[in-house]
Amino acid sequence: MANLNHWLHMHADQLDQSSALADTVLPALAGDQLLAIGVPQEHGGAGGDVRDAIDAIANVAEQSVTAAFVFWGQRCFIEFCCKARTARWQNAACQAAGGHAGGRQRFVERHEILVRHRAAANYGRTPG
User: Measuring CA to CA, which of 18, 58, 81, 96 is 20 to 30 A from 67?
Assistant: First the structure.
């Protein structure tokens, strides 16, 4: 976390006041393996549980509320994937813990498809 602490010290005000560094927050969190905290080792994480992740988010919040909010959002998605009963979502947790937003994007796309299919089934139509 030493690298992230230094980075946050240098950029916390800018993060909290503008979106210029928005694309750099998630990679910075992932670079120090913070997103892997609380993810079971069998899913590629660092181990521990959700309480460890909450402690890590609180530590980040002491320096930047913006970075902590990004951390919290990504960690919520990771927790959802870790609790999933399918390998697909558990793999998404591994990707998300590595700081890859692709897992979250695929989740949103699959959810939208599922909603369309359910709506079509309810009305006896084929999904479009």
Answer: 81
